[in-house]
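haha ok so turns out i had the wrong file open the whole time. this is the CORRECT one, sorry everyone. sequence first:
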Amino acid sequence: MPDMQMPFRNNLVTLSFDQGTLLLKTDDSHINDDCLHNNLWIWDSRVGSWRCEAIYYPQAAKMLSQRYGHIFKDNVPVSVRWPKVNIAQLRPEQQDAASVWKAAGCRGQIIMPTGTGKTEAAKYMTICHPYEICGLI
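then structure:
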């Protein structure tokens, strides 16, 4: 683990996506930064970088950009080209579930009986609202 007593030097701080996680690299392994001393980031000695779960990308990118300004580089892909998926017309109860989910900040669970279309509702939510899910709007 790096020495936590030495401050960041004026080196490039790079955020990237790696194997389902966010990877934070710097030219300097000595980090003394409160933003990394929380439960999100862990030191990965295999690659000499900090990692956190990719679900925290919006918060991590915003915080790192504000903290490091011009030395921060975000290499996480903005969009991925997925194959076209046909979405079935949602029934009223599925539309209600999607509306409640969106009102809750695109977070939550669909709890409905077996065979009522939870998967179809979830497809609709993720395909029709991808930027809300990622926190980009």
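Strands lie at 13-18, 21-26, 42-44, 49-53, 72-74.
again sry for the mixup
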